């Protein structure tokens, strides 16, 4: 069975968060080979004509989609599955719609709020320029699109609403793109990973990010340094733990229930992760719903699976299995002739459609409020 491991194009001088995607792709391809598949890797770029031709040449039964950004832009993450949908190719992980809904944090937060799932109150950059935030600080300024903590650090926390506009301007060069502000939740950071099973999503052991030996004045932010700069204080003092006290049992059950609800609300498939902050009163707030979280060997998803007794190859196999209906595991080669002919006649149409989708993502849809007034 031929499987193309699809990843984003990475420049030689790309930052470590992008370089990590190459390690992830190699690790997945090696595991697929050990499982008996015939893997190959392919970089997805904005040259969709070349990508479609390359897929046509391989004629895969399945694409293992690991694309997280294109040319370093997270706002294009949904273009890869959109092209695969256009070609009629089955692929792993979340579909185009789920990536669309979860990757734009404004859209995701609006959907969470409408579903009754607590997420920190927020305001768009445009709304903040027109009025003061109706909820009290401190605030944290984040990228609408970028993940992997790109553009996020202690300086992202702003204590006065009157200084938010200034913070937006100062962060324009931080690879963060479009920005918004939400309430900064001072508390514990817990991640819950989920993996498709025969009876729905299986919740893997929750993990807490500890802030060890942090001075009392230092803000607890899992920012870019904590994730990627190995020599930094933040990286060296934010270990992951799967150990919880007896007193956390009720909280963990609640986090599990919320995570499954998020899976269903966003229509995730294969695997996912929900990131929480738990405030000092014990209330959990959903920060992000991550469709297709990182599968690097040192990443949190692989660690959670290992803690559950699942080897990485078993994780890969279950993600592959989740890509097909149970009755369709006897596969015929993909890229049907009708689709190939259409692709040959109009190879750039998928790119044009993707650009239109991307334009829609530049701002929340009309039904998405600019702010939500529930305070932590």
Low-pLDDT stretches are 330-376
Overall mean confidence score, pLDDT: 84
End-to-end separation in angstroms reads: 50 Å
Helices, by number, come to 14
The major sheet is characterized as: 6 strands, antiparallel
How much helical structure, as a percent, in the residues?
A: 25-40%
Secondary-structure-based class equals: alpha+beta
Number of strands: 13
Q: What is the H/E string?
A: EHEHEHHHEHEEHEEEEHHEHEEHHHH
Q: What would your notes on this structure say?
A:
- This protein is an alpha+beta fold and 376 residues long.
- The chain has 14 helices and 13 strands.
- The strands form three sheets. Strands 8, 9, 10, 11, 12 and 13 form a six-stranded antiparallel β-sheet that branches.
- Strand 8 (188-197) and strand 9 form a beta hairpin.
- Helix 4 packs across helix 5 (105-114).
- 46% of the residues are buried.
Concise synopsis of the structure shown:
The chain is of the alpha+beta class and 376 residues long. The chain is built from 14 helices and 13 strands. Helix 1 packs across helix 12 (312-321) and helix 3 (79-87) packs antiparallel against helix 14 (349-361).
């Amino acid at each position: 069975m031929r499987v193309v491991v699809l990843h984003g194009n990475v420049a030689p001088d790309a930052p470590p968060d992008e370089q990590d995607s190459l390690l992830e792709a190699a690790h997945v391809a090696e595991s697929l080979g050990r499982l008996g598949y015939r893997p190959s890797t392919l970089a997805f770029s904005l040259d969709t004509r070349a990508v479609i031709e390359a897929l046509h040449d391989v004629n895969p039964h399945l694409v293992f989609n690991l694309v997280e950004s294109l040319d370093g832009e997270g706002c294009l993450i949904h273009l890869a599955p959109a092209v695969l949908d256009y070609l009629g190719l089955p692929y792993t992980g979340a579909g185009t719609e789920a990536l669309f809904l979860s990757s734009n944090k404004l859209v995701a937060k609006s959907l969470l709020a409408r579903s009754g799932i607590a997420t920190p109150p927020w305001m768009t950059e445009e709304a903040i320029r027109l009025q003061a935030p109706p909820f009290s600080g401190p605030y944290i300024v984040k990228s609408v699109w970028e993940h992997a903590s790109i553009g996020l650090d202690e300086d992202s926390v702003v204590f006065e609403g009157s200084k938010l506009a200034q913070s937006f301007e100062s962060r324009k060069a931080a690879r963060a793109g479009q920005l918004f502000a939400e309430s900064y939740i001072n508390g514990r950071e817990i991640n819950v990973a989920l993996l498709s099973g025969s009876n729905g999503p299986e919740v893997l052991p929750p993990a807490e990010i500890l802030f060890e030996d942090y001075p009392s004045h230092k803000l607890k932010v899992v920012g870019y340094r904590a994730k990627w700069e190995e020599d930094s204080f933040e990286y060296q003092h934010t270990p992951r733990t799967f150990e919880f006290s007896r007193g956390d049992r009720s909280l963990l059950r609640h986090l599990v229930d919320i995570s499954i609800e998020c899976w269903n609300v966003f229509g995730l498939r294969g695997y996912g992760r929900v990131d929480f902050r738990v405030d000092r009163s014990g209330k959990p707030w959903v920060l992000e719903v991550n469709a297709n979280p990182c599968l690097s060997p040192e990443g949190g998803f692989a660690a959670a699976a290992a803690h559950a007794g699942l080897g990485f190859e078993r994780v890969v196999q279950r993600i592959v299995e989740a890509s097909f209906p149970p009755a369709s595991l006897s596969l015929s080669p993909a890229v049907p002739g009708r689709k190939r002919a259409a692709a040959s006649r109009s190879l750039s149409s998928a790119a044009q459609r993707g650009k239109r989708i991307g334009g829609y993502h530049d701002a929340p849809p009309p039904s998405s409020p600019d702010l939500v007034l529930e305070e932590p």
